[in-house]
Amino acid sequence: xxxxxxxxxxxxxxxxxxxxSRLVAKADTATKNNALIAMANAIRRDEALxxxxxxxxxxxxxxxxxxxxxxxxxxxSTKGIATMAEGLIQIAALPDPVGEVSELRYRPSxxxxxxxxxxxxVVGIIYEARPNVTADAAALCLKAGxxxxxxxxxxxxxxxxxxxxxxxxxxxxxxxPETAVQVIETTDRTAVGELITMQDDVDVIIPxxxxxxxxxxxxxxxxxxxxxLDGVCHVYIDEQADIDKAIRIADNAKTQxxxxxxxxxxxxxxxxxxxxxLPALSKIYIEKGVELRGDDTACGKVPQMKAATExxxxxxxxxxxxxxxxxxxxxxxxxxxxQYGSQHTDAIVTENYSHAQRFLREVDSSSVMVNASTRxxxxxxxxxxxxxxxxxxxxxxxxxVGLEGLTSQKFIVLGNGEVRQ
Length: 421
Hints:
Blueprint: H1 3-25, H2 29-45, H3 47-63, H4 68-74, H5 78-93, E1 101-106, E2 112-119, E3 122-127, H6 132-143, E4 147-151, H7 157-173, E5 181-183, H8 190-195, E6 204-208, H9 211-220, E7 233-237, H10 243-255, E8 264-270, H11 271-287, E9 291-294, H12 296-301, E10 306-307, E11 321-327, H13 330-340, E12 345-349, H14 353-362, E13 367-370, E14 390-391, E15 399-400, E16 407-414
Parallel strand pairs: 3-4, 3-6, 4-5, 7-8, 7-12, 8-11, 9-10, 9-11, 12-13
Antiparallel strand pairs: 1-2, 2-16, 14-15
Helix pairs in contact: 2-5, 2-6, 2-7, 3-7, 5-6, 6-7, 10-11
C-alpha cells in the first residue's frame, strides 16, 4: 500500500469510526454488555486458534532476534487467554459510566446545574507486542461508549487478527456496528503518522509500548495523548518497616515479572535497617538471577553487587537488574524519587503512620502505595476490569485508565422556564 493509498485508507477508517461512535454512544448498557459477553465466549471457544496464531508471532519474533522483554509481552498462554476473557466479563459487570449525572444543584435563579458523564468519541490506540491489549482496549472503549481504532505492532499481527475476529463477532451478535472496533490492516508506519493527526475523526490517542514509540507519538500528535513514558518504580524500606513485609514486598515487586511498567527498578533502604534486610533480600535476588547495582554503601554490604552509575538511577530496566541505594532519611528517599522517578508507581514499607502519610502526600506519582507491591498498579487489580493503559499525565486521567478515564463530563442545566435577568 503506497503512501497515497494509506492516507485514503486511514481517512476511510476514521470516517467509519466517527459514524460508529454515534451509534455506540447511544447504545444501552444491556446491548454493550451482551457484546462483551459474546466476545468473551468467542475468545474462550477459540483458545486453540488464538494460541496457534500467537505461536506464529512468537516464532517470528525469536527469528528476528527481538529482545526477551518484548517476547515476554508478546506471548499468550492458556492462562492469559482465560484472563483476557475474564477481563471482558468483569467490564460487563461494571457500572456503565455513560449518562451518569452528578453534582446536580439548584442555583438562586431556579435552574439546576450538574454534570453528565459522556463518551470521548473515537479513541485511537497504538501499541506494541501485547496482544491482550486488542481485547482490553476494544472492551473498555465499547463499555464507555466509544469507537476504537487499534494499531497493533507488526510483531503481533496474527494474534491481533485472531482476537479482533472474536471482538467483531461479539459486536455483530449484539447488533452493534463492526466498525466500532477497527484494527489497522497495514503494518506500514505511515498509518500511525496519519492516525495521530486525524483531528476531525479521532478525539484522543493512547500509545502503549516502548519509550521511543510514546515519545514519537507525544511529539508528532495533533490530538490529545494519554501516556506514560517510563516506569521507573521505587520501593522505599523505611527504618520502621516490618522486616518480613519488606522482604516479601521488595522480592515480589521485582521478581514477579520483569518486563512490566510497574516492576520495581530502584530499591531504597534506610541506613538504620539496611543490615537487617539487605543481606536476606540480596540472597533472594541473586538466587533468582537478578543483577544488583548499588551505591558505595550497598556494595560494601553485598560483595556480588556492581557499582551503580548515575544513569542507573534513571533506568527502566524491564529486565532482571535492580539498582539499590542506601538513604539516611524519609526526606532523602522522597527527594531521590522526585529526581529520578517517572511519576508512575512508588511504594513505602513502614509501620510508622506519619511516615506513610507523608509519603502518600509528597510523592507525586500516579500510584503511591503503603506496604504493598508496585505490581498491583494495574487496572485489573484496582477493580477497573482491564485497563487501557497507565497515564502519568496530570490532566483528565491519571494512573490506570479504565472506564471513567475513557469518558468526559459535560454540564447539564435543568430549568422550568427560567430566563436570565
